[in-house]
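Regression test case RT-17, inverse folding.

Input:
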């Protein structure tokens, strides 16, 4: 009988007495981003002839937007996927299918969500490049503003690989978040 009381005490302490950490639940995001090609300054200065300059990878800047749908099953992990559009150069309008695993860091009971994430996307449209992918890492923060609405800020570093040539971009992103958890 003592074992039963002890088991009941453990269940009540660990199961009911603690606050639950905040989670987004099911969420959707829409964000705009701008990036700068870090290697462009070096490549442009090293190119001497007009032929070398014509062979440089496209774009000094990267503009675009993305839309994702995701789910946060654990208080420290979320997985999202969606579409991303990137404008790099007049002939390079890239549409990517992307996946983004997110790892939440910091205090789990705060209303603001600080996170690090990884990105991977592959090109799904026809453009001047035959093959295009991107891989990236970033850090961001989601701030809930209402019951189902918030905004997010991100800083990222990503490698856009166009026909087996990589361009490393550093960028900023701002977006809105709609989530299912109304208790934030």
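Golden output:
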């Amino acid at each position: 009988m003592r074992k039963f009381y002890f088991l009941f005490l453990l269940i009540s302490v660990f199961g009911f007495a603690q606050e639950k950490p905040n989670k987004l639940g099911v969420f959707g995001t829409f964000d705009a981003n701008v990036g700068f090609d870090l290697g462009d300054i070096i490549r442009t200065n090293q190119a001497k002839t007009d032929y070398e300059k014509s062979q440089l990878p496209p774009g000094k800047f990267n503009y675009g937007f993305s839309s994702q749908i995701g789910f946060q099953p654990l208080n420290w992990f979320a997985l999202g996927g969606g579409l991303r559009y990137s404008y790099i150069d007049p002939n390079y309008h890239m549409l990517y299918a992307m996946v983004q695993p997110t790892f939440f860091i910091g205090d789990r009971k705060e209303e603001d969500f600080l996170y690090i994430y990884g990105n991977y996307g592959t090109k799904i449209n026809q453009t001047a490049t035959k093959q295009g992918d991107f891989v990236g890492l970033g850090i961001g923060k989601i701030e809930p503003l209402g019951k189902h609405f918030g905004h997010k800020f991100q800083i990222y570093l990503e490698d856009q690989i166009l026909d087996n040539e990589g361009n490393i971009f550093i960028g900023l992103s701002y977006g809105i978040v709609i989530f299912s958890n109304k208790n934030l």
